[in-house]
Design goal:
The protein is mainly beta and about 200 residues long. The chain has one domain: SOS response associated peptidase-like (hypothetical protein yedk fold), CATH 3.90.1680.10. It is about 15% helix and about 35% strand. It contains four helices and twelve strands. The chain starts with a strand and ends in a 9-residue tail after the last strand.
Amino acid sequence: MCGRIDILPNKISDAVKAGFDVEWESRENRDLRPTQQVDTLQAESQGFTQVRLQWGIQPSWSKQLLINAQAETVATKMTFREAFRSRRCVIPCSGWYEWKILESGQKQKFRFHAPDESPLFMAGIWFPETDSTNRLVTLTTHPTPQCAQIHHRMPLLLPPDEVTTWLNGPLPKLEPLLKAPLLSLALQPEELAPVQQPFLF
């Protein structure tokens, strides 16, 4: 469900400057997680800007923090539809993490990233807050066959040349973007979590 994001600022800063003329400043965070602040790209009247948002919303009807919205229903679900129509954002990142339970019972962590380590652009929507930092959720979609080996969902990634459409485009032009993009990704296995031992009584 994409609950961890990888941020390596140097390549992100270079790509955002070159593509969107924004002097991007972010801190390295190899384990950015919900409730933390996320640097996002947003459209404004004179171009684009960097805006820091807090990851996750908690509507009055929900007992838990919501960190994702499904791309298939974001345009129609009451919680998300207004933000989808008028408050879209993009999260430039270096990758994200998912976990897979192995036959041994251990959890294997995988880092998803571009093969050349170029930045990825995750689609998001944001929500205004009157008494705290504005908030966001990321969008998820059905995975590519490659990603489906590890998890049944993946972040909605935008090709770099479609970021402007996502931020500024009219609603009819957004529908083709609400699907898993044809982007090649690398899967890098990381540390194994220890097997949980049963309690002995």
